[in-house]
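I keep forgetting this: the sequence line spells out the residues, with the fold written below as integer tokens. I include a record here:
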Amino acid sequence: MAERLYRRVLKLRPQDANALNLLGVAARQRGDIATALSLSAEAVARNPGSPVFLANRGGTLAEAGRLEEAAQALRAALAIRPADPMALRNLGQVLCALGDAAAAIEPLRRATTLAPATPEPWIALAHALREVGQDGAAEAARRALAIPGLDPSLADQARFLLAALGAEAAPDRAPAAYVRDLFDLYAPRFDEDLQGRLGYRTPALLAALVARAGFATGRVLDLGCGTGLSGLPLKPMATRLEGLDLSPRMLAEAAKRGIYDALHEADLLAWLPTRRGGFDLVAAADVLNYLGDLAPALTAIAAALRPGGLAAFSIEKGADAPYALGNGLRYRHDPAHVEALARAGGLTLLAREETALREEKGVPVAGVLFVLRRV
């Protein structure tokens, strides 16, 4: 309804920058980022001094993964209207995504001062403070939790942060909304970051271990497929390759590769039971580290395999506890406990390999690769 009204305005007044901006907002809200980018650019071109248009342009660029341009547009908006809490929050989140959490703290603090009853700036501030090791992260998360009527998904994220800080017990999984939002923002630069800056090689190592375990070809599920980086080494093994992920923007990037026969946007614990016996191989590269208790996932993976089918996955290696939430907001697992859970879920070990999964802040991340067969 609103979009029809804005289009009617444009027919009468083709130069109306406000209608262009509002159409861009509507396109962004329904997930049409390409159209939103075009409309927000046109609105700014018509009125480059509008802080509203610049802020919307910045938010749209951020959703498109064009983070440096987003920061530039948001700073331009704030130079004109410095007390815009949403632009301040968006700038802080963009700076965090660019790896500059220290620079994000000041705009996020200003956002919380201007909008103390809005939870998102508090949660973003807690993330930034935790990332740089400054005091106050737990207090910021608690301020979010104290806001009346807090959305349950935001409450889960605040509690997850507190757990990572050691201030609460770790939940049995990362909040789905947190994982989805994280990878939606990360999608456009995921491959470049992982393969370049982080030295990521888990998919290739996992596929090689699967081949050595004797898998030749069959129906393959790439669980937590992301942008499809993990699907590339699986494709030669697949008579049919399907991908599953929580993040719609990751799936959009995966679709561009043209290697999948089907892609599904869903939570793995909800979706796997719908495909009982549907696959010869289920592979999960760097996916299970967003789950603490792996028993439900391993049972669901086993159920999705035909008898004799293979499960292949990586974990970040932990010790002294079945699982623990690490500083990077990912879970580490005790390999012996994982093997015990797999056996209980109907999977027998074929191969296990310890390796460095990638680097984090210049330090190798110790991991373990598993290949198991459904009994």
Notes: The mean pLDDT is 92. The chain has two domains: 2-173, 184-374.
